[in-house]
Amino acid sequence: MMSNPPDLRPDLARATFTEEARPGQPKIGMVSLGCPKALVDSERILTRLRAEGYAISPDYAGADAVIVNTCGFLDSAKAESLEAIGEALSENGKVIVTGCLGAEPDYITGVHPSVLAVTGPQAYEQVLDAVHGAAPPAPDPFVDLLPASGVSLTPRHYSYLKISEGCNHHCKFCIIPAMRGRLQSRPAHAVIREAEKLVEAGVRELLVISQDTSAYGLDLKHATEKGRRAHITDLARDLGGLGAWVRLHYVYPYPHVRELIPLMAEGLILPYLDIPFQHAHPDTLRRMARPAAAAKTLDEIAAWRSVVPDITLRSTFIVGYPGETEDEFQTLLDWLDEAQLDRVGCFQYENVAGAAANDLPGHVPEEVKQERWARFMEKAQAISEARLAAKVGSRQQVIVDSVDEDGAVCRTRADAPEIDGNLFIDEGFEGLAPGDIVTVEVDEASEYDLWGRLV
Question: How many and how are cofactors bound here (predicted)?
Answer without folding.
Answer: Binds 2 [4Fe-4S] clusters. One cluster is coordinated with 3 cysteines and an exchangeable S-adenosyl-L-methionine.
